[in-house]
Amino acid sequence: MDLSEEGVRRVVADRSHLGASDVTEVRWASDFRPRAALADRFRAGRVFLAGDAAHVHSPAGGQGLNTSVQDAYNLGWKLGAVLRGGADASLLDTYEEERRPIAAGVLGLSTGVHRGEVRRGAATRQLGLNYRESSLTAETRTAPGPARAGDRAPDGTVNGVRLFDAFRGPHWTLLGAAGHVDGVPESVRTLPAAPQSYGPGVFLVRPDGYVGWAGDTAQGLRAYVARVGL
Ligand SMILES: Cc1cc2nc3c(=O)[nH]c(=O)nc-3n(C[C@H](O)[C@H](O)[C@H](O)COP(=O)(O)OP(=O)(O)OC[C@H]3O[C@@H](n4cnc5c(N)ncnc54)[C@H](O)[C@@H]3O)c2cc1C
Predict the structure, then answer these.
(1) Given the CA of residue 52, which atom of ligand 1 is nearest to it?
(2) pLDDT above 90 for 219
(3) Phi and psi for 130 in degrees, rounded to 5?
């Protein structure tokens, strides 16, 4: 690209509603080329890739930062669980398992937006992404309702408490268990019900806001709790 003042004027006149003379001064110009790439692996032993180091997008989709922050949250609580909670180190493998397919999908999406083939919409808001197929997800109900294990736990209100406020922080949240549940540590915030919009069941919400486990009752929760280092 011609980065001279004349070159910039020409591009502005050709590609926008402005005329060449509307550009009165060019203080700084650089050539920007979007890059799209995905790392083959997000983990090699003690090394983890997150954010743009793992996936770079065209900025057209506005997806890079959102995806990167979710990588960090996904990995962060797992590192804490293994280093402090005594969870098995295999929990860390679920970082790549969960995040790489999401990054690959988002990369395809942002490339489509960049090429003008896809419009921004529900997909670019990333609110429908889920980990239903993750090996870390346990849906144990016989007839799951609208909110399923692996889904981003929806907002709602329980006894005047807004769920997105209750979820905020590094803790787990248990919805739908009246009183203390055997084997579930005090660090888990417990609310006695889940909103109707979730459907019936008991839901254990991960620190990154996804439903990790769902059951008809709180029975069976103990094995899951041990797996995730709670
Ligand atoms: C023009 C543009 C527009 C964008 N718009 C959006 C948007 O609207 N929405 C969105 O979600 N995303 C957007 N993005 C993407 C977003 O900026 C990135 O996805 C996000 O910044 C990635 O964060 P990161 O921490 O992984 O990497 P970075 O933000 O690149 O951070 C990496 C840091 O590491 C430092 N570093 C590098 N090497 C070393 C070293 N050897 N030692 C020490 N430090 C080092 C760098 O200086 C940098 O500070 C846009 C990107 C661009 C370029």
Answers:
(1) 26
(2) no
(3) -150, 170
**Is 59 in contact with 111 (CB distance < 8 Å)?**
no
Q: How far is the CA of 68 from the centre of ligand 1 (A)?
A: 9
Q: Which residues share a beta bridge with 55?
A: 38
| Other CB atoms within 10 Å distance of the CB of residue 187 | 10
pTM of the shown model: 0.88
- Ligand 1 pocket (Cβ < 6 Å) reads 51-53, 59, 62-66, 68
> What single-letter DSSP state applies at residue 126?
T
Please state, in angstroms and rounded to a whole number, the distance separating the CA atoms of residues 189 and 205: 10
CA-nearest residue, atom 38 of ligand 1: 53
Mutation choice for ligand 1 from 42, 52, 69, 127, CB with most ligand atoms inside 8 A: 52
Q: How far is residue 211's CA from residue 152's CA, in Å, rounded to a whole number?
A: 6
Q: What's the rounded Cα separation, in Å, for the pair 5 and 8? A: 5
CA 122 to ligand 1 centroid distance, Å: 24
CB 104 within 8 A of CB 71: no
pLDDT at residue 186 above 90? Answer: no
Q: What is the pLDDT of residue 180?
A: 80
